[in-house]
Amino acid sequence: MNWDYNDPYIRTVRVLPEHIDALDHTNNTQYVTWCNETAWAHTTALGLGANEYQDLNRAMALTRADYQYLRATRLDNELMVGTWITQWDRRMTMERKMQIVDADSGDTVLRATLQFVCIEISSGRPKRPPEEFIAIYEPALVS
Fold first, then answer.
1. Is position 105 within any domain?
2. Is the CB of residue 114 less than 8 Å from the CB of residue 35?
3. Phi, psi at residue 28, to the nearest 5°?
């Protein structure tokens, strides 16, 4: 595969009938769902799932998302959803890149940039990340 960065965290998905829209291709909202699920799976694999977020009263909340839809996909296509943490300032913000690749052709069908801010869950306000976030997210940063 021709990934934009080395060593992506990867989830494989298949386009199912319920993902197809009136234009006979994958609905754009499904890509957003796959990106969200993959970001959560990656975060959980790193050791910061929803339970850890609650225990620490902190979370990385999405503040901006930019999706570039490059090529349509269709029923039964197998897709690989890759993600990386590409920026992490250790103070408040993080950037995550997403790439969806057609497993058969190797073509990139979507690229996305997601920006997050650390919040205190109980108040919903921006708050500096706890040391646990720094210890887990820092080594995952793509250099």
1. yes
2. yes
3. -60, -30
In terms of Cβ atoms closer than 10 Å to its own Cβ (0-12, 13-18, 19+), residue 8 is buried
For residue 56, what is the domain's CATH number? 3.10.129.10
Neighbour order of strands in the sheet with 78-88: 9-14, 78-88, 93-102, 108-120, 58-69
Triad 103, 97, 143: Cα angle to 5°: 105
The answer to whether residue 3 sits within a structural domain is: no
- Amino acid residing at 50: A
Q: How confident is the model over 67-104, as pLDDT tens digits?
A: 999 999 999 999 999 999 999 999 999 999 999 999 99
**Pairwise CA distance, residues 69 & 81, whole Å:** 13
The amino acid present at 80, given as its one-letter code, is M
Q: Which domain holds residue 103?
A: 9-140
Contact 113, 65 (CB under 8 A): yes
* Number of domains the chain contains: 1
Cα separations in angstroms, 94 against 31, 52, 58, 84, 97: 21, 18, 14, 11, 10
pTM: 0.95
